[in-house]
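In this supplementary section we document a worked example of the pipeline. Step one takes a protein sequence of length 512 as its only input; no multiple sequence alignment statistics are reported here. Step two produces a three-dimensional model, which step three serialises into C-alpha coordinates for compact storage. The input and output of this example are shown verbatim.
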Amino acid sequence: MAEDVFKKIVSHCKEYGFVFPSSEIYDGLGAVYDYAQNGVELKNNIKQYWWQSMVLLHENIVGIDSAIFMHPTIWKASGHVDAFNDPLIDNRDSKKRYRADVLIEEQIGKYEEKIAKEITKARKRFGEAFDEAQFRATNPRVLDNQKKRDDLHQRFSDAMNANDLEGLKQIILDEGIVCPISGTRNWTDVRQFNLMFKTEVGSTAEGASTIYLRPETAQGIFVNYLNVQKTGRMKIPFGIAQIGKAFRNEIVARQFIFRMREFEQMEMQFFVKPGTEIEWFNKWKEMRMKWHQALGFGAENYRFHDHEKLAHYANAACDIEFKMPFGFKEVEGIHSRTDFDLKQHETYSGRSIKYFDPETNESYTPYDIETSIGVDRMFLSVMCHSYMEEQLENGETRTVLKLPAALAPTKLAILPLVRKDGLPEKAREILDDLKFHFNCKYEEKDTIGKRYRRQDAVGTPYCITVDHDTLKDDTVTLRNRDTMEQQRVKISELRELIEDKVSITSLLKKLV
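The serialised model returned by step three reads:
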Protein backbone atom coordinates (compact mmCIF):
# COMPACT_ATOMS: atom_id res chain seq x y z
CA MET A 1 0.00 0.00 0.00
CA ALA A 2 2.76 2.45 0.98
CA GLU A 3 4.64 1.54 -2.22
CA ASP A 4 1.54 2.36 -4.28
CA VAL A 5 1.27 5.77 -2.59
CA PHE A 6 4.94 6.46 -3.28
CA LYS A 7 4.50 5.56 -6.96
CA LYS A 8 1.59 8.00 -7.13
CA ILE A 9 3.73 10.75 -5.58
CA VAL A 10 6.54 10.15 -8.12
CA SER A 11 3.99 10.25 -10.95
CA HIS A 12 2.36 13.39 -9.50
CA CYS A 13 5.75 15.13 -9.37
CA LYS A 14 6.18 14.70 -13.11
CA GLU A 15 2.57 15.31 -14.18
CA TYR A 16 2.28 18.60 -12.29
CA GLY A 17 5.71 20.08 -12.99
CA PHE A 18 7.65 19.36 -9.81
CA VAL A 19 10.39 16.90 -10.84
CA PHE A 20 11.39 15.55 -14.27
CA PRO A 21 13.82 12.71 -15.02
CA SER A 22 16.99 14.38 -16.31
CA SER A 23 17.78 14.05 -20.04
CA GLU A 24 14.49 12.21 -20.53
CA ILE A 25 14.40 12.60 -24.33
CA TYR A 26 17.68 10.64 -24.34
CA ASP A 27 16.17 7.94 -22.08
CA GLY A 28 17.41 9.63 -18.93
CA LEU A 29 20.45 9.32 -16.68
CA GLY A 30 20.22 7.11 -13.60
CA ALA A 31 19.64 8.84 -10.26
CA VAL A 32 19.72 12.36 -11.75
CA TYR A 33 16.63 14.58 -11.80
CA ASP A 34 15.64 18.10 -12.87
CA TYR A 35 13.40 20.34 -10.78
CA ALA A 36 10.54 21.63 -12.91
CA GLN A 37 8.62 24.91 -12.73
CA ASN A 38 6.71 24.14 -9.52
CA GLY A 39 9.50 22.05 -8.03
CA VAL A 40 12.09 24.81 -8.24
CA GLU A 41 9.75 27.24 -6.45
CA LEU A 42 9.07 24.73 -3.65
CA LYS A 43 12.78 23.93 -3.39
CA ASN A 44 13.74 27.62 -3.25
CA ASN A 45 11.16 28.21 -0.51
CA ILE A 46 12.60 25.33 1.55
CA LYS A 47 16.08 26.80 1.15
CA GLN A 48 14.84 30.26 2.08
CA TYR A 49 13.14 28.92 5.21
CA TRP A 50 16.39 27.21 6.27
CA TRP A 51 18.66 30.13 5.34
CA GLN A 52 16.61 32.74 7.16
CA SER A 53 16.22 30.50 10.22
CA MET A 54 20.03 30.42 10.40
CA VAL A 55 21.37 33.81 9.35
CA LEU A 56 18.35 36.04 10.02
CA LEU A 57 17.45 34.68 13.46
CA HIS A 58 21.02 34.26 14.77
CA GLU A 59 23.38 37.24 15.07
CA ASN A 60 26.36 34.90 15.33
CA ILE A 61 25.71 32.88 12.15
CA VAL A 62 26.76 34.12 8.70
CA GLY A 63 26.73 32.54 5.27
CA ILE A 64 29.26 31.73 2.57
CA ASP A 65 29.22 30.12 -0.88
CA SER A 66 32.42 28.14 -1.45
CA ALA A 67 33.57 26.68 -4.76
CA ILE A 68 32.70 23.14 -5.87
CA PHE A 69 36.29 22.59 -7.06
CA MET A 70 38.82 22.63 -4.22
CA HIS A 71 42.46 21.72 -3.78
CA PRO A 72 42.69 17.89 -3.91
CA THR A 73 44.72 17.72 -0.66
CA ILE A 74 41.60 18.95 1.17
CA TRP A 75 39.97 15.57 0.51
CA LYS A 76 43.07 13.74 1.69
CA ALA A 77 43.01 15.75 4.92
CA SER A 78 39.29 15.16 5.48
CA GLY A 79 39.64 11.40 5.07
CA HIS A 80 37.47 11.15 1.97
CA VAL A 81 40.23 9.80 -0.28
CA ASP A 82 40.93 6.87 2.04
CA ALA A 83 37.67 6.27 3.89
CA PHE A 84 34.67 7.51 1.89
CA ASN A 85 33.31 4.10 0.99
CA ASP A 86 30.09 2.09 0.84
CA PRO A 87 29.96 -1.70 1.45
CA LEU A 88 28.49 -3.17 -1.76
CA ILE A 89 27.29 -6.68 -2.62
CA ASP A 90 26.12 -8.13 -5.95
CA ASN A 91 23.51 -10.77 -6.70
CA ARG A 92 24.97 -13.06 -9.35
CA ASP A 93 21.57 -13.99 -10.83
CA SER A 94 19.99 -10.54 -11.23
CA LYS A 95 23.37 -8.78 -11.79
CA LYS A 96 22.06 -6.06 -9.43
CA ARG A 97 24.25 -4.32 -6.87
CA TYR A 98 23.12 -3.39 -3.35
CA ARG A 99 24.48 -1.69 -0.27
CA ALA A 100 25.03 -4.46 2.27
CA ASP A 101 24.24 -2.19 5.22
CA VAL A 102 20.92 -1.13 3.68
CA LEU A 103 19.87 -4.76 3.10
CA ILE A 104 20.52 -5.53 6.77
CA GLU A 105 18.80 -2.35 7.99
CA GLU A 106 15.71 -3.33 5.96
CA GLN A 107 15.77 -6.77 7.60
CA ILE A 108 15.85 -5.12 11.04
CA GLY A 109 12.88 -3.02 9.89
CA LYS A 110 10.94 -6.18 8.98
CA TYR A 111 11.23 -7.47 12.54
CA GLU A 112 10.05 -4.07 13.82
CA GLU A 113 7.08 -4.20 11.41
CA LYS A 114 6.08 -7.65 12.70
CA ILE A 115 6.10 -6.34 16.26
CA ALA A 116 4.05 -3.28 15.25
CA LYS A 117 1.44 -5.52 13.53
CA GLU A 118 1.05 -7.67 16.65
CA ILE A 119 0.54 -4.55 18.75
CA THR A 120 -1.99 -3.12 16.28
CA LYS A 121 -4.01 -6.36 16.30
CA ALA A 122 -3.96 -6.52 20.09
CA ARG A 123 -5.03 -2.90 20.43
CA LYS A 124 -8.06 -3.59 18.23
CA ARG A 125 -8.89 -6.72 20.20
CA PHE A 126 -8.61 -5.23 23.72
CA GLY A 127 -9.62 -1.62 23.03
CA GLU A 128 -9.15 0.85 25.88
CA ALA A 129 -8.04 -1.91 28.24
CA PHE A 130 -4.93 -2.56 26.14
CA ASP A 131 -1.64 -2.19 28.01
CA GLU A 132 1.10 -1.94 25.38
CA ALA A 133 4.02 -2.17 27.82
CA GLN A 134 2.64 -5.35 29.38
CA PHE A 135 1.88 -6.82 25.94
CA ARG A 136 5.44 -6.15 24.77
CA ALA A 137 6.82 -7.78 27.90
CA THR A 138 4.66 -10.93 27.80
CA ASN A 139 3.50 -11.79 24.28
CA PRO A 140 5.58 -14.72 22.93
CA ARG A 141 5.53 -13.58 19.28
CA VAL A 142 6.57 -10.04 20.21
CA LEU A 143 9.33 -11.33 22.48
CA ASP A 144 10.59 -13.70 19.78
CA ASN A 145 10.72 -10.97 17.11
CA GLN A 146 12.23 -8.48 19.55
CA LYS A 147 15.05 -10.93 20.36
CA LYS A 148 15.70 -11.59 16.67
CA ARG A 149 15.74 -7.85 16.01
CA ASP A 150 18.08 -7.09 18.94
CA ASP A 151 20.48 -9.94 18.13
CA LEU A 152 20.65 -8.87 14.48
CA HIS A 153 21.12 -5.24 15.46
CA GLN A 154 24.04 -6.14 17.71
CA ARG A 155 25.75 -8.27 15.06
CA PHE A 156 25.26 -5.53 12.47
CA SER A 157 26.62 -2.84 14.79
CA ASP A 158 29.68 -4.95 15.66
CA ALA A 159 30.42 -5.69 11.98
CA MET A 160 30.07 -2.04 10.91
CA ASN A 161 32.25 -0.76 13.75
CA ALA A 162 34.94 -3.34 12.94
CA ASN A 163 34.63 -2.72 9.18
CA ASP A 164 34.10 -6.50 8.94
CA LEU A 165 33.00 -7.07 5.32
CA GLU A 166 32.94 -10.86 5.71
CA GLY A 167 30.78 -10.43 8.80
CA LEU A 168 28.28 -8.33 6.84
CA LYS A 169 27.99 -11.01 4.16
CA GLN A 170 27.55 -13.72 6.79
CA ILE A 171 24.68 -11.76 8.35
CA ILE A 172 22.98 -11.53 4.93
CA LEU A 173 23.38 -15.30 4.46
CA ASP A 174 22.27 -16.20 7.99
CA GLU A 175 19.18 -14.00 7.76
CA GLY A 176 18.22 -15.53 4.40
CA ILE A 177 18.06 -12.11 2.76
CA VAL A 178 17.17 -12.49 -0.92
CA CYS A 179 17.64 -10.22 -3.92
CA PRO A 180 14.36 -8.32 -4.53
CA ILE A 181 14.73 -8.91 -8.29
CA SER A 182 15.86 -12.54 -8.62
CA GLY A 183 14.59 -13.82 -5.28
CA THR A 184 17.84 -15.78 -4.82
CA ARG A 185 20.62 -15.73 -2.21
CA ASN A 186 23.45 -16.08 -4.72
CA TRP A 187 25.58 -13.24 -3.32
CA THR A 188 29.14 -12.13 -4.04
CA ASP A 189 31.54 -11.00 -1.32
CA VAL A 190 31.05 -7.51 0.12
CA ARG A 191 33.47 -4.89 -1.28
CA GLN A 192 34.23 -1.26 -0.51
CA PHE A 193 33.60 1.36 -3.21
CA ASN A 194 34.81 4.99 -3.05
CA LEU A 195 32.02 7.46 -3.80
CA MET A 196 33.97 10.48 -5.04
CA PHE A 197 33.85 11.65 -8.67
CA LYS A 198 37.25 12.41 -10.19
CA THR A 199 37.94 14.90 -12.93
CA GLU A 200 40.91 16.85 -14.29
CA VAL A 201 41.75 20.53 -14.26
CA GLY A 202 44.27 22.01 -16.66
CA SER A 203 44.55 22.98 -20.32
CA THR A 204 46.45 19.91 -21.54
CA ALA A 205 46.37 16.25 -20.70
CA GLU A 206 50.07 16.35 -19.72
CA GLY A 207 49.63 19.32 -17.42
CA ALA A 208 46.24 18.33 -15.97
CA SER A 209 45.82 17.65 -12.25
CA THR A 210 43.32 15.23 -10.74
CA ILE A 211 40.70 16.93 -8.61
CA TYR A 212 37.37 15.82 -7.16
CA LEU A 213 33.80 17.02 -7.31
CA ARG A 214 33.08 17.78 -3.67
CA PRO A 215 31.16 14.99 -1.89
CA GLU A 216 30.01 17.43 0.84
CA THR A 217 29.90 21.18 1.36
CA ALA A 218 31.37 21.17 4.89
CA GLN A 219 35.05 21.30 3.91
CA GLY A 220 34.53 24.60 2.07
CA ILE A 221 33.45 26.05 5.41
CA PHE A 222 36.35 24.58 7.38
CA VAL A 223 39.07 25.92 5.10
CA ASN A 224 37.44 29.39 5.18
CA TYR A 225 36.49 29.52 8.84
CA LEU A 226 39.41 31.74 9.92
CA ASN A 227 38.89 34.12 6.98
CA VAL A 228 35.24 34.52 8.00
CA GLN A 229 36.11 34.88 11.68
CA LYS A 230 38.67 37.62 11.09
CA THR A 231 36.81 39.63 8.44
CA GLY A 232 33.53 39.37 10.33
CA ARG A 233 35.16 39.96 13.74
CA MET A 234 33.29 36.85 14.95
CA LYS A 235 33.56 35.65 18.53
CA ILE A 236 33.15 32.03 19.57
CA PRO A 237 30.57 30.56 19.53
CA PHE A 238 29.71 31.40 15.92
CA GLY A 239 28.41 29.56 12.88
CA ILE A 240 28.87 29.52 9.12
CA ALA A 241 25.99 28.40 6.88
CA GLN A 242 26.13 27.25 3.28
CA ILE A 243 23.77 25.86 0.64
CA GLY A 244 25.36 24.11 -2.30
CA LYS A 245 25.66 21.15 -4.64
CA ALA A 246 27.55 17.98 -3.74
CA PHE A 247 28.27 14.85 -5.77
CA ARG A 248 28.52 11.18 -4.86
CA ASN A 249 28.91 8.28 -7.25
CA GLU A 250 26.10 6.29 -5.65
CA ILE A 251 26.06 2.80 -7.13
CA VAL A 252 22.77 2.01 -5.43
CA ALA A 253 20.78 5.16 -6.07
CA ARG A 254 17.05 4.63 -5.57
CA GLN A 255 13.77 5.80 -4.11
CA PHE A 256 13.38 8.69 -6.53
CA ILE A 257 15.17 11.83 -5.27
CA PHE A 258 15.98 10.31 -1.86
CA ARG A 259 19.44 9.16 -2.98
CA MET A 260 20.98 10.88 -6.00
CA ARG A 261 24.38 11.38 -7.56
CA GLU A 262 24.01 15.16 -7.76
CA PHE A 263 22.25 16.71 -4.79
CA GLU A 264 22.08 19.84 -2.71
CA GLN A 265 22.97 20.30 0.96
CA MET A 266 22.12 22.91 3.57
CA GLU A 267 24.91 22.79 6.15
CA MET A 268 25.84 24.91 9.13
CA GLN A 269 29.09 24.48 11.07
CA PHE A 270 28.94 25.97 14.57
CA PHE A 271 32.33 26.59 16.19
CA VAL A 272 32.50 26.33 19.98
CA LYS A 273 35.00 26.26 22.81
CA PRO A 274 36.39 22.77 23.54
CA GLY A 275 34.53 21.18 26.42
CA THR A 276 31.20 22.85 25.57
CA GLU A 277 30.52 20.79 22.42
CA ILE A 278 28.08 18.24 23.92
CA GLU A 279 25.99 21.01 25.48
CA TRP A 280 25.81 22.75 22.07
CA PHE A 281 25.17 19.43 20.32
CA ASN A 282 22.07 18.91 22.47
CA LYS A 283 20.92 22.51 21.93
CA TRP A 284 21.17 22.16 18.16
CA LYS A 285 19.32 18.85 18.24
CA GLU A 286 16.45 20.61 19.97
CA MET A 287 16.52 23.65 17.66
CA ARG A 288 16.63 21.56 14.49
CA MET A 289 13.71 19.35 15.55
CA LYS A 290 11.72 22.51 16.31
CA TRP A 291 12.48 23.79 12.79
CA HIS A 292 11.08 20.62 11.22
CA GLN A 293 8.00 20.44 13.43
CA ALA A 294 7.12 24.09 12.75
CA LEU A 295 5.92 22.88 9.33
CA GLY A 296 2.97 21.22 11.06
CA PHE A 297 3.51 17.64 9.87
CA GLY A 298 2.99 16.16 13.35
CA ALA A 299 5.58 15.27 15.99
CA GLU A 300 4.78 11.57 15.57
CA ASN A 301 6.32 11.63 12.08
CA TYR A 302 9.78 12.58 13.40
CA ARG A 303 12.27 10.80 15.60
CA PHE A 304 15.91 11.04 16.65
CA HIS A 305 18.20 8.18 15.72
CA ASP A 306 21.49 8.14 17.61
CA HIS A 307 24.47 6.76 15.70
CA GLU A 308 26.04 3.64 17.12
CA LYS A 309 28.96 3.68 14.73
CA LEU A 310 30.48 7.14 14.95
CA ALA A 311 32.40 8.59 12.04
CA HIS A 312 36.13 8.97 12.58
CA TYR A 313 35.70 12.70 13.24
CA ALA A 314 32.75 12.62 15.69
CA ASN A 315 32.22 12.19 19.42
CA ALA A 316 28.41 12.39 19.16
CA ALA A 317 26.00 12.07 16.23
CA CYS A 318 22.32 11.65 15.56
CA ASP A 319 19.87 11.85 12.68
CA ILE A 320 16.45 13.40 12.50
CA GLU A 321 14.33 10.84 10.68
CA PHE A 322 11.00 11.49 8.96
CA LYS A 323 8.31 8.92 8.27
CA MET A 324 8.34 8.45 4.49
CA PRO A 325 6.00 5.99 2.70
CA PHE A 326 8.97 3.56 2.75
CA GLY A 327 9.68 3.95 6.50
CA PHE A 328 11.52 6.35 8.80
CA LYS A 329 14.46 7.81 6.87
CA GLU A 330 17.15 10.37 7.62
CA VAL A 331 16.49 13.96 6.51
CA GLU A 332 19.04 15.74 8.70
CA GLY A 333 22.24 14.84 10.51
CA ILE A 334 23.57 16.60 13.62
CA HIS A 335 27.19 15.81 14.48
CA SER A 336 29.73 16.87 17.05
CA ARG A 337 32.79 16.78 14.77
CA THR A 338 35.27 17.75 17.55
CA ASP A 339 38.36 19.60 16.26
CA PHE A 340 39.20 16.87 13.75
CA ASP A 341 38.68 18.80 10.52
CA LEU A 342 40.45 22.00 11.54
CA LYS A 343 43.43 20.09 12.95
CA GLN A 344 43.68 17.96 9.82
CA HIS A 345 43.74 21.06 7.64
CA GLU A 346 46.43 22.59 9.89
CA THR A 347 48.53 19.45 9.50
CA TYR A 348 48.13 19.08 5.73
CA SER A 349 48.39 22.79 4.86
CA GLY A 350 51.20 23.57 7.30
CA ARG A 351 49.43 26.75 8.38
CA SER A 352 48.04 27.72 11.77
CA ILE A 353 44.29 28.30 11.73
CA LYS A 354 43.81 28.49 15.49
CA TYR A 355 41.29 30.91 16.99
CA PHE A 356 42.61 33.61 19.35
CA ASP A 357 40.19 34.12 22.22
CA PRO A 358 40.44 37.75 23.42
CA GLU A 359 38.57 36.94 26.65
CA THR A 360 40.99 34.25 27.83
CA ASN A 361 44.01 35.55 25.91
CA GLU A 362 44.72 32.07 24.49
CA SER A 363 44.76 30.40 21.08
CA TYR A 364 43.03 27.07 20.49
CA THR A 365 41.42 24.96 17.79
CA PRO A 366 37.61 25.25 18.13
CA TYR A 367 35.32 22.25 18.26
CA ASP A 368 32.51 22.06 15.71
CA ILE A 369 28.82 21.14 15.74
CA GLU A 370 27.40 20.38 12.30
CA THR A 371 23.79 20.42 11.15
CA SER A 372 23.35 19.05 7.64
CA ILE A 373 20.15 18.60 5.58
CA GLY A 374 19.77 17.18 2.12
CA VAL A 375 17.54 19.68 0.30
CA ASP A 376 16.23 16.94 -1.99
CA ARG A 377 15.31 14.66 0.91
CA MET A 378 13.61 17.58 2.63
CA PHE A 379 11.70 18.27 -0.60
CA LEU A 380 10.64 14.62 -0.77
CA SER A 381 9.47 14.57 2.86
CA VAL A 382 7.35 17.68 2.23
CA MET A 383 5.79 16.13 -0.89
CA CYS A 384 5.14 12.78 0.80
CA HIS A 385 3.36 14.34 3.76
CA SER A 386 1.38 16.83 1.68
CA TYR A 387 0.05 14.43 -0.99
CA MET A 388 -3.54 13.38 -0.27
CA GLU A 389 -6.48 11.82 -2.05
CA GLU A 390 -9.74 12.96 -0.44
CA GLN A 391 -13.23 11.55 -0.85
CA LEU A 392 -15.72 14.40 -1.28
CA GLU A 393 -19.37 14.42 -0.26
CA ASN A 394 -20.49 14.19 -3.89
CA GLY A 395 -18.56 10.93 -4.33
CA GLU A 396 -15.68 12.46 -6.29
CA THR A 397 -12.02 12.15 -5.30
CA ARG A 398 -9.74 15.16 -5.28
CA THR A 399 -5.95 14.97 -5.29
CA VAL A 400 -4.54 17.79 -3.19
CA LEU A 401 -1.09 18.82 -2.01
CA LYS A 402 -1.57 20.28 1.47
CA LEU A 403 1.79 22.02 1.38
CA PRO A 404 2.64 24.45 4.19
CA ALA A 405 1.42 27.73 2.72
CA ALA A 406 4.81 29.39 3.19
CA LEU A 407 6.48 26.70 1.06
CA ALA A 408 3.84 26.43 -1.69
CA PRO A 409 5.13 27.34 -5.18
CA THR A 410 2.11 29.56 -5.92
CA LYS A 411 0.39 31.41 -3.09
CA LEU A 412 -2.67 32.72 -4.93
CA ALA A 413 -4.44 31.75 -8.14
CA ILE A 414 -6.55 34.50 -9.72
CA LEU A 415 -9.41 33.09 -11.79
CA PRO A 416 -11.92 35.08 -13.85
CA LEU A 417 -15.27 33.23 -13.88
CA VAL A 418 -15.61 33.65 -17.65
CA ARG A 419 -13.36 34.96 -20.43
CA LYS A 420 -15.52 37.98 -21.29
CA ASP A 421 -17.47 40.92 -19.86
CA GLY A 422 -14.31 42.59 -18.54
CA LEU A 423 -13.60 39.86 -15.97
CA PRO A 424 -10.14 38.88 -17.37
CA GLU A 425 -9.11 42.54 -17.35
CA LYS A 426 -10.21 42.96 -13.72
CA ALA A 427 -8.43 39.72 -12.73
CA ARG A 428 -5.19 40.92 -14.32
CA GLU A 429 -5.50 44.24 -12.53
CA ILE A 430 -5.57 42.34 -9.23
CA LEU A 431 -2.61 40.21 -10.37
CA ASP A 432 -0.55 43.27 -11.26
CA ASP A 433 -1.11 44.67 -7.77
CA LEU A 434 -0.36 41.50 -5.74
CA LYS A 435 2.50 39.97 -7.78
CA PHE A 436 5.03 42.23 -6.04
CA HIS A 437 4.19 40.68 -2.67
CA PHE A 438 3.87 36.94 -3.32
CA ASN A 439 3.81 34.48 -6.22
CA CYS A 440 0.47 34.67 -8.05
CA LYS A 441 -0.84 32.80 -11.10
CA TYR A 442 -3.55 33.81 -13.55
CA GLU A 443 -5.66 31.08 -15.16
CA GLU A 444 -8.76 31.33 -17.33
CA LYS A 445 -9.02 28.00 -19.20
CA ASP A 446 -11.73 25.37 -18.33
CA THR A 447 -14.56 25.52 -15.82
CA ILE A 448 -13.95 27.08 -12.42
CA GLY A 449 -14.24 23.63 -10.81
CA LYS A 450 -11.48 22.14 -13.00
CA ARG A 451 -9.27 25.12 -12.29
CA TYR A 452 -9.78 24.65 -8.54
CA ARG A 453 -8.74 20.99 -8.90
CA ARG A 454 -5.57 21.93 -10.81
CA GLN A 455 -4.59 24.43 -8.14
CA ASP A 456 -5.29 21.83 -5.42
CA ALA A 457 -2.97 19.41 -7.21
CA VAL A 458 -0.05 21.88 -7.21
CA GLY A 459 -0.70 22.96 -3.61
CA THR A 460 -1.89 26.56 -4.12
CA PRO A 461 -3.30 27.56 -0.71
CA TYR A 462 -5.71 30.25 -1.97
CA CYS A 463 -7.76 30.94 -5.08
CA ILE A 464 -9.88 33.99 -5.83
CA THR A 465 -12.68 34.06 -8.35
CA VAL A 466 -13.46 37.29 -10.14
CA ASP A 467 -17.15 37.36 -11.15
CA HIS A 468 -19.74 39.90 -12.33
CA ASP A 469 -20.38 41.12 -8.78
CA THR A 470 -16.68 42.03 -8.56
CA LEU A 471 -17.25 44.76 -11.15
CA LYS A 472 -20.05 46.19 -9.01
CA ASP A 473 -18.67 46.04 -5.46
CA ASP A 474 -14.93 45.25 -5.73
CA THR A 475 -15.28 41.96 -3.87
CA VAL A 476 -14.06 38.47 -4.88
CA THR A 477 -14.62 34.91 -3.68
CA LEU A 478 -11.63 33.68 -1.64
CA ARG A 479 -11.30 29.86 -1.52
CA ASN A 480 -9.21 27.96 1.01
CA ARG A 481 -7.40 24.90 -0.43
CA ASP A 482 -7.53 22.74 2.70
CA THR A 483 -11.14 23.35 3.79
CA MET A 484 -12.56 24.32 0.35
CA GLU A 485 -14.52 27.00 2.22
CA GLN A 486 -15.32 30.19 0.32
CA GLN A 487 -15.87 33.71 1.59
CA ARG A 488 -16.56 37.04 0.01
CA VAL A 489 -13.80 39.58 0.64
CA LYS A 490 -12.89 43.05 -0.58
CA ILE A 491 -10.06 43.27 -3.11
CA SER A 492 -8.40 45.90 -0.92
CA GLU A 493 -8.18 43.36 1.94
CA LEU A 494 -6.63 40.50 -0.07
CA ARG A 495 -3.00 41.32 0.60
CA GLU A 496 -3.50 41.70 4.35
CA LEU A 497 -5.55 38.47 4.54
CA ILE A 498 -3.07 36.34 2.60
CA GLU A 499 0.45 37.75 2.94
CA ASP A 500 1.19 36.85 6.56
CA LYS A 501 -0.15 33.32 6.13
CA VAL A 502 2.00 32.58 3.08
CA SER A 503 5.27 34.29 4.04
CA ILE A 504 8.39 32.58 5.36
CA THR A 505 8.07 34.98 8.30
CA SER A 506 4.97 33.07 9.46
CA LEU A 507 7.19 29.97 9.93
CA LEU A 508 10.11 31.85 11.47
CA LYS A 509 7.85 33.30 14.18
CA LYS A 510 7.26 29.76 15.46
CA LEU A 511 10.97 29.33 16.13
CA VAL A 512 11.54 32.24 18.52
